[in-house]
Specification:
Structural class: mainly alpha
Helix content: over 70%
Shape: globular
Distance between the termini: 60 Å
Organism: Sporosarcina contaminans
InterPro entries: MFS_trans_sf
Keywords: Membrane, Transmembrane, Transmembrane helix
Number of domains: 1
Protein name: Sporulation integral membrane protein YlbJ
Number of helices: 13
Transmembrane segments: 14-30, 42-64, 84-103, 146-165, 198-216, 257-281, 288-309
Largest sheet: none
Radius of gyration: 21 Å
């Protein structure tokens, strides 16, 4: 009976996935121009707002993490501080890349990696100060305030993480993870190689979800009586953060709520970034529930802290 129910559940899940996939294919076929415009906008945002800020830091972070670890059993606060500094200041999804690499190096256990993944997740300073502060807010000081709000919220969550990890024995769970101690003769080349994979993942998800968000927004505004600007901002924010931020700027720039809306969208991240994190973290079976809770916390905390600063 149990096997029958499991099989039935699997069939139902498969059927739902097929319906969703074919539904999206039909939407793309019916609206090829809209899909193209969304993909083009996603590609432009990736090249203009993400790649210049993200690529150099990913390569440098990977290069540092590829260097042989002299003492994987160093004091916990040193390992946690290393994870926070490298992960939180590198931009999405550098935190996940950092935590994953530290697990592979034997510096973190799975339990540690799950909690630290949640805390070490923030947009890069160059993205917030350069793209958001200078180009969107037209005020570098507002960019600094937003960056500070993000890291205060992260540090509060990080302190909670330290409390939860206080009684952790720090044992490295090396099952199902390849932790062979290989001599890295060319860490820079390995860093560039692995960074290219991360960049391709980021580009693919940004362009796909930007295109999908554009198609769904047009379909929703056609089927229902809704404001296109509001619908586009909501849908794009759910699917792709950078496109959502750009849409919010186009439609809400002159509203008092604008900076807090941008803070909420950046804290929400969008499915594109979540998918990047999940793909990277699952390579070492990192627990993901703490990450989910941290996103909920950030959506509430970051705009509130920014409001106090503004």
């Amino acid at each position: 009976m149990h096997e029958y129910l499991s099989s039935l559940h699997a069939c139902e899940s498969s059927m739902v996935n097929l319906i969703i996939i074919w539904g999206m294919i039909i939407l793309f076929i019916l609206q090829p121009g809209v899909a193209h415009d969304g993909a083009e906008a996603g590609a432009y945002l990736f090249l203009h707002a993400l790649l210049p800020y993200l690529l150099p830091y990913i390569i440098l972070t990977q290069w540092l993490l590829k260097m042989p670890v002299r003492n994987p059993t160093a004091k916990r606060w040193k390992r946690y501080s290393k994870a926070y500094v490298l992960g939180s200041f590198g931009g999405f999804p550098v935190g996940a890349v950092t935590i994953t690499e530290m697990v592979k190096n034997g510096e973190l256990s799975r339990r540690e990696s799950g909690l630290l993944l949640a805390a070490c997740h923030a947009p890069g300073p160059m993205f917030i100060l350069g793209f958001v502060g200078t180009e969107l807010f037209d005020n570098p000081l507002s960019g600094w305030k937003l960056l500070l709000a993000i890291h205060i919220a992260n540090l509060l969550f990080f302190c909670l993480t330290l409390l939860l990890l206080k009684n952790n024995k720090g044992k490295r769970d090396q099952k199902n993870i390849d932790l062979e101690k290989k001599t890295k003769s060319a860490p820079l080349l390995e860093a560039i190689k692995e960074s290219s994979g991360v960049i391709i993942l980021v580009a693919t998800t940004v362009i796909f979800f930007s295109s999908l968000g554009n198609v769904l927004t047009t379909a929703a505004s056609t089927a229902f009586t809704v404001d296109l600007g509001i619908a586009k901002t909501i849908v794009l924010s759910i699917f792709e953060m950078t496109s959502g931020v750009q849409s919010a700027t186009d439609h809400f720039y002159n509203y008092p709520i604008f900076p807090y809306l941008i803070a909420s969208i950046i804290s929400l991240n969008g499915l594109s970034i979540h998918l990047q994190v999940f793909v990277i973290a699952k390579s070492v079976n990192t627990p993901l529930m703490p990450y989910v809770f941290s996103r909920i916390w950030s959506v509430v905390a970051v705009p509130a802290i920014l409001y106090l600063f503004m």
